[in-house]
Specification:
CATH class: Alpha Beta
Largest sheet: 9 strands, mixed
CATH architecture: Alpha-Beta Complex
Number of helices: 12
Strand order of the largest sheet: 5-4-1-6-11-8-12-10-9
CATH superfamily: Spore Coat Polysaccharide Biosynthesis Protein SpsA, Chain A
Helix content: 25-40%
Structural class: alpha/beta
CATH topology: Spore Coat Polysaccharide Biosynthesis Protein SpsA, Chain A
Number of domains: 1
Strand content: 15-25%
Bound molecules: uridine 5'-triphosphate
Shape: globular
Length: about 290
């Protein structure tokens, strides 16, 4: 079955990137000339997703403004004959059917996903974490949707990460099915190193069967006193098995200061307006180390 609906949880507090994220949601931090969340919406659209629910909270209204028309700006650009930027702005406002719902208390990613129950209805759906930008030739979530269609099981986007990240993310029990595709039979959120299954972790993308909502409803609060999506996904993995896809793009963690810097440098080195100048600048700068 084709996945048409996606949710983007963007209601976290972003404490790791304070004070930048005090008044500006971390999902709106720019990568060169677009906010992080726009890359994520564009990835979903490229994968054929038509309806997107963004989970927000207080202070995240600028996300709604960003995907809306800016009547004054558009009128001014029209008057000045800046047709290129005018169409860029209009395209941003027309990317997809975007809906919003508030998570009134920040009770964890699992709780944020639960807010999407009515929007999702009875279908499987995609989840794109609002602070994980993945840049690549093909949309990462499209690679996961393809695996969902092939195997008919919930899918997670995975990569191997070093020990210092496994303990901050999660660890998956896996066996290889084919190149880039693994079977996932168990998982643990933020494990102590001696409890890890492997160095494979979930990074920012999944396609989930609807049953996840019933599971989330009965999942107790987990690590950090939050409702953890991983704890609920574990039940799916143990009961039916899940599929792990080693997506091909590069993932940038926009909830982390170094992730923001890496994203800006690497995207800046490819952007037609900044590539040449940035390359020269970095070469000169490196000579001074
Ligand atoms: P994080 O764990 O990175 O969120 O969640 P956080 O709470 O913002 O991070 P720190 O630790 O305080 O810096 C991953 C994604 O899930 C969303 C976040 O907005 C982020 O995009 N999220 C997290 C929610 O929507 N609601 C929550 O209750 C928690």
């Amino acid at each position: 079955m084709k996945i048409k609906k996606a949710i983007i949880p963007a209601a976290g507090l972003g404490t790791r990137v304070l004070p930048a994220s005090k008044a500006l949601p971390k999902e709106m931090l720019p990568i060169v000339d677009k906010p992080a969340i726009q890359y994520i919406v564009e990835e979903a659209v490229k994968a054929g997703i038509t309806d997107i629910l963004i989970i927000t909270n207080r202070g995240k209204g600028v996300i709604e403004d960003h995907f809306d028309h800016s009547v004054e700006l558009e009128a001014m650009l029209e008057k000045r004959g800046n047709t290129e930027m005018l169409s860029t702005l209009k395209n941003t406002a027309n990317l997809a059917n975007i809906y919003y719902i508030r998570q009134k208390e920040t009770r964890g990613l699992g709780d944020a996903v639960l807010k999407a129950r009515e929007f999702v209805g009875n279908d499987p759906f995609a989840v794109l974490y609002g602070d994980d930008v993945i840049i690549g030739e093909v949309p990462a979530i499209g690679e996961l949707c393809d695996a969902y269609e092939k195997y008919g099981k919930s899918v997670v986007g995975i990569k191997e990460v070093p020990d210092e990240l496994v303990v901050k993310y999660c660890s998956l029990k896996v066996s290889r099915l084919e190149d880039k595709i693994l079977s996932v039979s168990d998982m643990i959120e933020k494990p102590a190193l001696e409890n890890k299954f492997s160095n494979f972790s979930i990074l920012g993308r999944c396609v989930l069967d609807n049953e996840i909502f019933d599971i989330l409803e009965r999942t107790p609060l987990g690590v950090g006193g939050e409702l953890q999506l991983t704890d609920a996904m574990r039940e799916l993995a143990v009961k039916y098995g899940m599929i792990g896809v080693e997506f091909s793009g590069t993932r940038y963690d926009m909830g982390n200061k170094f992730g923001i810097l890496k994203a800006n440098i690497e995207v800046g080195l490819k952007h037609p307006e900044t590539a040449g100048e940035l390359k020269e600048y970095l070469k000169e700068l490196c000579k001074t180390f």
